[in-house]
Amino acid sequence: MMVSSDPPPHPDPALAARGLPDFVALLSAELAAMVAHPNPLPVSSLGVGEVVLSARELAGLSQRVLAARAGTSQAAITEIETGKRLPTIRTLMRLVDAAGLELVVGLRRPGAATPTALGALLPNVDDGLADFLPMTTPSPFDGPSSNPA
After folding, report:
1. Given this model, what pLDDT does residue 1 score?
2. Which long-range contacts (CB under 8 A, 24 or more apart) does 61-64 make?
3. 3 state SS for the chain
4. Mean pLDDT, 10 residues at a time, over the chain (149 residues)?
5. What is the pLDDT of residue 64?
6. Where, residue-wise, is CATH 1.10.260.40 in the chain?
């Protein structure tokens, strides 16, 4: 029995006539690839908003109280927490500070379980910009990444 190498006929003649691909087949292939190689870390649809939400909940504050402490509106807090608005680093630092916490950022190699560098972002009183205060840094003996660009 001879197997044809031709792709199956396009299920939607209108899309085929416009030269567009079979989107159902593409999506199915993408989903199959995701199942075969799942992302080892959970991904939040809230993005950075989850940081603000977590800070607010850890501090036991309502959106209104956090907004008042940070000098913004409750509506702005809602938009950030729901992922409808992406705050600047300065705004994120101000919101986390208003919750009585510090914003910690890190660097990690793709797929690694632990970060190679961690530090707090703190506002500089002189210029208002973010200063990075290292907490953990990589050893010079660690060498470069095994995945050169």
Report:
1. 52
2. 61/99
3. CCCCCCCCCCCCHHHHHCCCCCHHHHHHHHHHHHHHCCCCCCCCCCCCHHHHHHHHHHHCCCHHHHHHHHCCCHHHHHHHHCCCCCCCHHHHHHHHHHCCCCEEEEECCCCCCCCCEEEEEEECCCCCCEEEEEEECCCHHHCCCCCCC
4. 60 69 66 64 71 94 98 96 92 95 88 84 85 82 59
5. 98
6. 44-101
Looking at the structure, give the CATH architecture of the domain made up of residues 44-101. Answer: Orthogonal Bundle (1.10)
**Residue-level pLDDT at 58:** 93
Q: How far is CA 111 from CA 41, 43, 68, in A?
A: 9, 14, 39
| Residue 117 backbone zone (phi > 0: left; psi -120 to 50: alpha; other: beta) | beta
pTM of the prediction? 0.63
User: How far is it, in rounded angstroms, from Cα 147 to Cα 127?
Assistant: 37
Q: Which amino acid is at 12?
A: D
